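Q: How would the structure tokens look for this protein?
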Amino acid sequence: MRTADNLLDLIGHTPLVKLNRCIPESSPHEFYAKLEFMNPGGSVKDRMARNIIEDAEKRGLLKSGGTIIEATSGNTGVGLAMVASIKGYKCIFTISEKMSDEKINTLKTLGATVIVTPKGVEPEDSRSVYSVAEKLAKEIPNSYLTNQYHNSANPEAHYKTTGPEIWEQMNGKIDLFVDGAGTGGTISGTGRFLKEKNPDVKIVCADPVGSILYDLFYHKEIKQPPAPFLVEGIGEDMLPKNVQMDVLDDFVQVSDRDTFQTTLEIVKKEGVFAGPSSGCALSAAIQYSKRWTQKKRIVVIFPDSGSKYLSKIGNSQWLFENGIFDQENPERRFSHLENQLTKMNVPSEGLPKVAREDLATVALLKSIDSEYFVVEGSQKDFNVYSTKELMRSLN
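A: Here is the predicted structure in token form.
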């Protein structure tokens, strides 16, 4: 009988899968995705959460019945809340209002106290996620600020686990490793391990347009002030200590449009329900790989699942309003999409119903399990269409 004593024993050893259909046909390279959303808490952050808490316990910084405090984009909070529930700690998390409703509600469901802070404020602002978390840690007795951005136990977790796993899974044959950087823990810890195994392995960071990390790497200063971007969990408006620039070989900037379009391509063509930071990393990997003509083996981190972003990647109106599909008027686009379809002479009774504004998302996510479906019109009648034809409509 093979069992685990608790969920902590199931963290890590995530699968590595080859990507086949979402890669340009002209590319000679092999791309592999490390599916970190298959950790028990649903993201790569489980690794760091366990290591940070166990490190704090060993050093006497976190005592029985204590309170864990962190500024999180959601995934770290979930990992910490999972560890806390198993070990008997309380949790308080500060999170930006930019983050998805799914993440915020998940943290609350896990029993954490969640404080939502304004988006777009400077890190030093008293209202920022960082400042509020620091203030709480000073005021609450027997509390511990895990400080994922600067805590060395963060990259250490990936040096000890993620890096060795990838090296073993690839049989030591890897040319390029790509990941985004939020705290920097994953790319720095994993990258350092891989570099020690083979100094020729390239470590490349995918950075959203609007983040300051690209400028700091290339120019040692901020050339462009931080600007809003849509992808969550990666990109920064300050430099975390755990973004270890000496480990990194290069940065690739990725737009929101490329990020989300690549994410939907992953879902549609590979059946891998990955989140937007995965799309950002893969887009960067594809861009960077174009400098090589000989076949290379490339590993990309897929940090979390798209299920945490359904209010965004599963929302046609949001995708259109944020310029992911195109700049046309959404109603015009929905109407145009429906006009491409052939009405079927099939009874509508019992068929799944799709709202007109959701047609594009349904086509991209292949989320209809039926040969036919109906579009709910403004009138009482329904229009019946072929599911296969809809799936082909955005190709």
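The chain has three domains: 13-39+156-311, 45-145, 328-392.

The two ends are 47 Å apart (CA to CA).

Upvote if useful.
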